[in-house]
Structure formats: C-alpha cells, structure tokens
Design goal:
The structure is a single chain. The strands form two sheets. The protein has a two-stranded antiparallel ribbon with strand order 1-4. It has a two-stranded antiparallel sheet with strand order 2-3. Helices cover 21% and strands 11% of the residues. It has 109 residues and is α+β, with helices and mostly antiparallel strands. It is built from three helices and four strands. The mean pLDDT is 97.
C-alpha cells in the first residue's frame, strides 16, 4: 500500500507534507504535488499534514483513481524535499470540487 495525492491538491499545492516524508517520495508539478507510489513506504505521516486533505491511502476508492497519474508524473516531475510557500491564492482553491481539469502537466520549479 502507498499514499496518493488527489485532485484536492490542484491549485493549492501546500508542501507541508513534503517536509515530513522520510523517503522523499514527493514530486512537484506546476500546480500540484504527486507521490511516487513505488517509493512510498506507507508510513502515513504526510496525510495529516495536508491542509487540503488531498492525500489518501491507495486502498481508498478515490485514491485508486489517481494512483496511475501519481506514478506517471512522479517519473516526469522533479523531486521536492523541502517545504515551499503555497501559492498566494491556495486558500481560495482549497475545498473546491472538480479541479482535475485544471491540472497542469508542466513540471514545478
């Protein structure tokens, strides 16, 4: 089992989760983070750190929908190991539904 980042992260991209990850399995896109499920050790410390409640165990139905996307983009995007400031409008996007269409495929910086 692994943890997966879901669409709640899109346009929020809080990085509180990154700082607590013991295996550095987060990767950064332009407007979202993902977890490489093959690197995740299922410790769960990231899940409660996410203000957007975007991280779920892959055993949950919603997470299963996002698992392959996390795997795919973790191979394309740069690894992120330190907390960064969230986008200025992150709180405005927090909790909004149907953000999948807003996902940018561009890597983070």
């Amino acid at each position: 089992m692994a943890y997966i980042v879901t669409e709640n992260c899109i346009k929020c991209k809080y990085t509180d989760c990154v700082e607590v990850c013991p295996v550095d399995c987060f990767y950064e896109g332009e407007n979202m983070l993902v977890i490489n499920p093959d690197e995740c050790i299922d410790c769960g410390v990231c899940e409660p750190e996410c203000p957007a409640e975007a991280i779920l165990p892959d055993s949950e139905e919603l997470a299963q929908k996002w698992a392959e996307m996390n795997r795919e983009y973790s191979l394309k995007w740069p690894n992120i190991t330190r907390r960064k400031d969230a986008p200025a409008d992150a709180d405005e996007w927090k909790g909004r539904p149907d953000k999948a269409k807003l996902l940018s495929e561009k890597p983070g910086s």
